[in-house]
Write a structure and sequence with these properties.
By secondary structure, this protein is of the alpha/beta class. The protein contains 14 helices and 12 strands. Bound molecules: D-mannose and manganese (II) ion. Keywords: Iron, Lyase, Manganese.
Length: about 350
């Protein structure tokens, strides 16, 4: 298990790499060029600069999250082939700098969604929460509620310039149902797979978060059944998953340890996001600290599933809480994610000693 830490870059992340380096057991930074639009080629020089900054801190850049897939590719618009060419060039450029895994998602229009970015828990810590009732309204209601509530932080995909064209984007999706979206996904994977093989870069699709349709948009990476259909595009190990326990586990019907066991045993899990959530009622959940004792997921059983299937890929803690007065990017503070890492590595060490 290779432990990583997500980092948003020198300009956008308040956490210095020197601090990441001090978290015991962390050797990998999960990074990206966040300013580049989906559909563009990532220039070699920009990747080189990111890698150099990470390596100068004594860390490695082997996992990138995310190289976003454009809506043109998801919708199947004519410009998708140009975007796919750029994606292939990006795979090649990343591989030249030692990148082994690309995390991405196939969610239309938006990325992950929460309805509260700073919800206070009884212990005085803050974390993100979700209420399906609120998402059942219009996305503008959600936007008004969420934006500004966390020091002006915007959910990914909700950037101002993007929201300006949002009606047209919704319209462009009006003919895309789940089957259509899946067909466009298969088209994308088929088009990039040779490049992945040639450059030895494994693709790892992140599940939908939350794992259900939002604002009437189709979503197709919601649970084990969806994942089986996606895995069936090709049996190549270059087409795999980022198993995100918190995203998948927010559906109370999903058995995360058994899903992890199934896909890891198939060799289709190059990357894992480990985090816990607490089901607080029908259609609601909040993010918690990583240990099993704090939330609804059995983190021991999840890590055990990885151990027993001989997992040797990359993991990172996912969203953590804001604790000890820290107030940075929601979900991506230093302290709680560092605590999570120590807990997860403790489970891993114990499993190694006893199995
Ligand atoms: C949610 C997070 C997401 C994820 C992207 C992947 O669980 O891990 O930010 O990174 O959706 O593209
Ligand atoms: Mn995740």
């Amino acid at each position: 298990m290779k432990m990583g830490f997500r980092w948003f870059g020198e300009e956008d992340d308040p956490i210095p790499l020197a601090h990441v380096r001090q978290i015991p057991g962390v050797r990998h930074v999960v990074g990206a060029l966040h300013d580049l639009p989906a559909g563009a080629e990532w220039p070699l020089a920009r990747i080189a600069a990111l890698r150099e900054a990470i390596e100068a801190a004594g860390l490695l850049l082997e996992v990138v999250e995310s190289v976003n897939v454009s809506d043109a590719i998801k919708i199947g618009l004519p410009e998708r082939d140009r975007h796919i060419e750029n994606y292939i060039a990006t795979i090649r450029n990343l591989s030249r700098h030692g990148v082994k895994v690309i995390c991405y998602n196939f969610m239309p229009v938006f990325d992950w969604i929460r309805t509260d970015l700073r919800s206070e828990a009884p212990d005085g810590s803050f974390s993100m929460a979700y209420d399906q009732q609120i998402v059942s309204g219009s996305f503008r209601d959600v936007m008004l509620r969420v934006q500004g509530g966390a020091d002006g932080f915007r959910l990914p995909g909700w950037e101002e310039d993007r929201l300006a064209g949002i009606e047209a984007l919704f319209e462009a999706y009006s003919d895309v149902d789940e089957d259509g979206l899946r067909a466009n996904f298969a088209y994308f994977i088929d088009a990039i797979l040779d490049a992945c093989r040639a450059h030895d870069v494994r693709m790892a699709v992140h599940p939908d978060d939350p794992p259900r349709s939002v604002f009437g948009l189709p979503r197709i990476v919601k649970g084990a059944e969806d994942m089986r259909a996606i895995a069936a595009f090709t049996d190549s190990p270059y087409h795999g998953f980022t198993v995100c326990t918190g995203s998948l586990g927010s559906d109370p019907d999903t058995d995360v340890p058994s899903l992890m066991r199934e896909f890891s045993a198939l060799g289709r899990v190059p990357f894992v996001h480990l985090r816990n959530i607490l089901h607080t009622g029908p259609g609601t959940f909040r993010e918690t600290a990583h240990p099993s004792s704090e939330g609804s997921l059995d983190m021991f059983a999840i890590v055990e599933a990885l151990h027993e299937t001989g997992f040797d890929g990359y993991v990172r803690p996912d969203h953590g809480r804001d604790i000890w007065g820290e107030r940075g990017r929601p979900g991506y503070g230093l302290h709680d994610r560092a605590l999570g890492i120590t807990y997860l590595l403790g489970l891993w060490e114990a499993l190694g000693r006893t199995h």
